[in-house]
């Protein structure tokens, strides 16, 4: 498809009178548009199915801009994964769990994890696709590994506070507890089509979603309760 003339690449001389701040804002807007488009396409098609030309077209940009900002398709994919994990972890950090009793805090943590998966199904698909890649690209990102440190610390502090106060039983590992929460909340999106088809479950039904959410919260709380 024939396109209009490509915009001047970042780094070239600006037109007279154009302020550096304007150029920087335009560059950031282009980068953000590419990242948003890549998130949608990689979530839908995976790394192998997501094409650079699809992404640049969806971002209303150009292939060369992807290479300029991200270096390669692989670099863009890693950037998408990092942004996805950052967004999810930042949402968890907003809970202020120290303001609640350990059990209430755990209920809020699990409920937020469930809600984030249901409301951000693109994230679940991205993670599922990266598992198809056997975690190849996540392994290349130190940022993603660091982003997941705070959530484990949050769970550990919450759990240890509950043990000290006598409401939680001892002997539970924070990473194992995080794995259980992730598994229960992730499944409702990753397997909604197969599970829904086999057992005739409508995952769009508010009552169904609410009942499943309540059930998962109760399972986790009963697992750790003394």
Give a description of the structure:
There is one protein chain. With 226 residues, this protein is mostly helical. It has two domains: 20-71, Orthogonal Bundle (Arc Repressor Mutant, subunit A); 78-224, Tetracycline Repressor, domain 2, CATH 1.10.357.10. The chain contains eleven helices and no strands. Helix 1 (20-49) crosses helix 4 (73-93), helix 5 (102-119) packs antiparallel against helix 11 and helix 8 (149-164) crosses helix 9 (174-190). The longest helix has 30 residues, at 20-49. The chain starts with 19 loop residues before the first helix and ends with a helix.
Question: What are the salient characteristics of this protein?
Answer:
Arc Repressor Mutant, subunit A, disordered N terminus, 72% helix, 226 residues, 11 helices
Q: Report the span from N to C terminus.
A: 65 Å
Whole-number mean pLDDT: 89
CATH topology of the largest domain: the name is Tetracycline Repressor, domain 2
Query: How many separate domains?
Result: 2
SSE diagram, text form:
Layout: H1 20-49, H2 52-58, H3 63-70, H4 73-93, H5 102-119, H6 121-132, H7 142-147, H8 149-164, H9 174-190, H10 192-199, H11 206-224
